[in-house]
Give the backbone structure.
Amino acid sequence: MSPGGADAGVPLIDLGAQYAAIASDLEAAVLDVLRSQRYVLGERVTAFERRTAEYLRVRHAIGVASGSDALLLALLALDLRPGDEVVTSPFSFFATAAAIVRAGATPVFADIDPRSFNLDPAAAARAVTRRTRALLPVHLFGRCVDFAAFDALAREHRLPIVEDAAQAIGAERNGVRAGAWGDLACFSFYPTKNLGGAGDGGLVSTGDEGLAERVRRLRVHGESSAYRHEELGINSRLDALQAAVLSVKLRSVDAWNQARRARAARYAELFSAAGLDEVLALPATLEAAADPGHVFHLYVVRAPHRDELKAHLDARGIGAGVYYPIPLHLQPCFAGLGYRRGDLQEAERAAEEVLALPVYPELTVGQQERVVATVRSFYRP
């Protein structure tokens, strides 16, 4: 069969389809960098930072080497000390918590909201102690957290907010974009992200001049001028090749995000027509009044018999992924924090039930119909 034929598989993500649509622009941008022989930071990175700051509606955007480094640098800029605590989600990529430890503080995990998978503001409030120095909510799967609730919590305790927006570029809540809300925000440009590079890359955004200057210095070994180091930083510079690729893709990210929303809405219709909307707990696809800015980095359902369903899909060429099978508070490396199974029940339940299905701008109606039919064949053989 041809790639689009009835027997063709459906990948979880198809980067080749995205590349084909913009190949000439990408190749021209990369060739321009190669000819310039200027590869690290420089004018292309500065131009990308400026455009991204405008896109995010924020004063400062600082390109760094990865999303993980973005988190670390943002936390380092807050001058955390041993014994300080940062309240965050246990249901996220590992880097969210690892950066807290690398910055010298202790992660304190609070449970998630079962509907959104995001950090529950009420649970976060209960986790705040006299040692808490920051809040680190995660806009998971492309859906923003409850800004108002976390604003109130931050004001009450005079805490800075660091947004983990790695999966949420272009996401909005009440007209405010992810990255323009907290004191600092962190983005990842890993290739599979909604805005993905040709390798690792990341960015820190902030509206605060002092924090921006601090992050810029920390990303170059704490250097304020040539060979003058004001503090210990790290080597985390966005390179010009990544900036060139990302600058091309940034022009399309809003259209791509809208296409992801459209495909999420189509899934809701297809699953409903198949009689599966009561079997699967679907994402809040079209809660337009409360959540028009979800960018669906991943389309994640709660699935009974999740592991068996995934094996069924895998065997039939349908891409599916589990994000995340082990909540952070139960990771072996954090055993010393003292958490036990049962402490954060919603995160633990999500880890046992979630399944990501294919969602990307180039996903066709036929491909989505095949995904839904294959899921239906598992639950209603």
About this structure: The first helix runs from residue 15 to 36.
